[in-house]
Amino acid sequence: SQKIEQNSEALNIQEGKTATLTCNYTNYSPAYLQWYRQDPGRGPVFLLLIRENEKEKRKERLKVTFDTTLKQSLFHITASQPADSATYLCALSGGNTPLVFGKGTRLSVIA
Amino acid sequence: ETGVTQTPRHLVMGMTNKKSLKCEQHLGHNAMYWYKQSAKKPLELMFVYNFKEQTENNSVPSRFSPECPNSSHLFLHLHTLQPEDSALYLCASSQGALAGGEAGELFFGEGSRLTVL
After folding, report:
1. How confident is the model over B28-73, as pLDDT tens digits?
2. Which of A15, B23, B41, B74 is such that its CA lies 20 to 30 A from the CA of B67?
3. In chain B, which residues have their Cβ closer than 8 Å to the Cβ of A44?
4. Are A34 and A99 in contact (CB under 8 A)?
């Protein structure tokens, strides 16, 4: 069956360190993958999109990689700050269906 | 401000009530979506509308009835709900329908927190 797994439900890191979140998928062949940020009681906000033919994408302190062989995306936040604390959602295109989301990883950056 | 406005933000209803959730997007997008978000579960796609036509109904119970009168407005009519329907209901819009590998991002509203007693 098709599955999207974000490896940790919660992740705690020290301020200034690099946070790395993982998204694995099975039985999908996504054309692209996206990452969203969601704060408590708010709707998700789009961060980055990476296509299947791209290895890496960067935006300010954010970096996303996409390995279609491993069926995995890594999401990095460098020089993390307490304001980066939120839930991060991985989403991928499911062929003829719109985006399919993972459960998310709740990141806490500790000062 | 994401350009997608949902009302009400909070709703408490009994199982015999009829209520509606409203979504309006000011982005000029063609596609609109309803997602359900429950604790500890991923976002579940409920309905998709593209150019006012429903293109996806993800096996949603008939007690949820969507309505899309135009590309800017989307409603979710609620009737005879169950306590397990309590969740955050999120509306989203996009420029295209994001199907068949068509890339694009979703713009979400802030959600309507529904509690069914």
Report:
1. 999 999 999 998 899 999 999 988 788 777 789 999 999 999 989 9
2. B41
3. 43, 90, 106, 108
4. yes
